[in-house]
Specification:
The structure is a homodimer of 219-residue chains. The first copy, chain A, is α+β, with helices and mostly antiparallel strands. The first copy, chain A, has a domain at 8-90 and 100-167: Roll (Pnp Oxidase, Chain A), CATH 2.30.110.10. Chain A has helices at residues 23-31, 66-71, 117-131, 135-138, 144-149, 173-176, 208-211, and strands at residues 19-20, 35-42, 45-56, 59-63, 78-92, 100-114, 152-156, 159-165, 183-191, 195-196. Chain A is globular and about 65 Å long. Chain A starts with 18 loop residues before the first strand and ends in an 8-residue tail after the last helix. Chains A and B meet through strand 2, strand 3, strand 5, strand 6 and helix 3 of A and strand 2, strand 3, strand 5, strand 6 and helix 3 of B. Strand 10 (195-196) of chain A pairs antiparallel with strand 9 of chain B.
Chain lengths: 219, 219
């Protein structure tokens, strides 16, 4: 069932009523993000690394990272946690313990795997084109040395859940009857004026992919 | 030395030239964030959870989470990774492999510990007041039951490093001589219009802490 967690590990325990398990909600949250946080374990120590990500169908992808070194000789993959979070606001409650943040997040658990050579190139082309349509064709394509230096890792979205908090304070009736104010400050990612590299030779036009870029990307 | 990593585990390997180890840079990145990502390990599986955080001197603090259950009987603490990331922009390069993001991040490793009862209350008061000065005094204080339900966890900032990428594309001379455009889209968190809880009784004034709230908080 789409609205049930895929596993006990992804069933929300804390604030379980915020949990969403349908794939559309999950995909929208993943696709609206440009960076994720990937967790992996090395010598018993967890590491959490921010990195760019993208999704193709039922997989999330990201660039080479320390995990790629760990993966090199491991056909079975390594356990990772892939998390994407959007901060949407701060909620000020009447009761101190009810202050909260509004957010959307996705957490996916599983074994990450290195993307094989023949799929890697297509996956990276899709990444850039979903970020900014036309970007892949515009830029200088990687040479063989650059391709070799690049690892791509992916995780299948099997054990995955979303958590969405978009409401105001959940104060008790007694607190609501008080004369204390409550509300929220919405937060969102805003895009500034396009910056041109000062090293550009005069007369180089801004390409469409840059002029038309809007955050979040429609991918 | 302030500009050397505290440990080999926090010495940057990938893009090591982006590494910063001075405490002022690290504190500024932590303090500008409202949410962090905490990684911990359970049954060999890493988990990465977004949560609100705050800093007091040489410690970062966050609310109770799954980690608090794991910590309950562990005086020695559990290994965690605390990561804060700010996405500052997207860099479009001339060469496809040089597209990048501008960001500031901090990663701290170590053993997290439960904050003892007597310090917990002060730590939470400091949290709310640094987020919005006056907030602690304004809201209804927690009752004993609410206090008991709340766990606060902290991590000492010993093994900690920052990573800052604020430059444009690092294209090779050959690519720079081409007629391809390169530049960046700045991204930042913007604050929307204050929302009042529709359940407010008429005549309740917006308090100063809400009127004056500005992201990022000055803490």
């Amino acid at each position: 069932m789409a609205d049930e967690p895929a596993s006990e590990r992804t069933r929300l325990r804390r604030y379980h009523w915020l949990g969403k398990y349908d794939r559309e909600t999950i995909n929208n949250i993943i696709d609206a993000g440009i960076i994720c946080h990937v967790g992996y374990v090395f010598n018993g120590q967890p590491y959490v690394t921010p990195t760019s990500h993208w999704r193709i169908d039922d997989y999330v992808y990201w660039h080479g990272s320390a995990a790629s070194r760990m993966l090199k000789n491991l056909e079975t993959g390594i356990p990772v946690c892939f998390t994407v979070t959007h901060l949407d606001g701060i909620v000020f409650a009447r009761a101190a313990m009810n202050h909260n943040v509004q957010f959307r997040s996705v957490m996916a658990l599983g074994n990450a795997e290195l993307v094989p050579e023949e799929m890697k190139r297509e996956a990276l082309a899709i990444f850039t084109d979903r970020l900014a349509p036309g970007l892949w064709d515009y830029a200088r394509k990687p040479n063989e040395q650059e391709w070799r230096a690049t690892k791509v890792i992916r995780l299948r979205l099997d054990e995955v859940s979303a958590k969405v908090n978009d409401v105001l304070a959940g104060d008790e009736e007694e607190d609501c009857a008080s004369d204390r104010w409550s509300g929220a400050v919405p937060l969102s990612i805003a895009q500034g004026q396009l910056i041109c590299d000062p090293k550009l030779a005069p007369g180089i036009a801004v390409p469409d992919f840059a002029k038309n870029f809007r955050y979040p990307p429609k991918r």
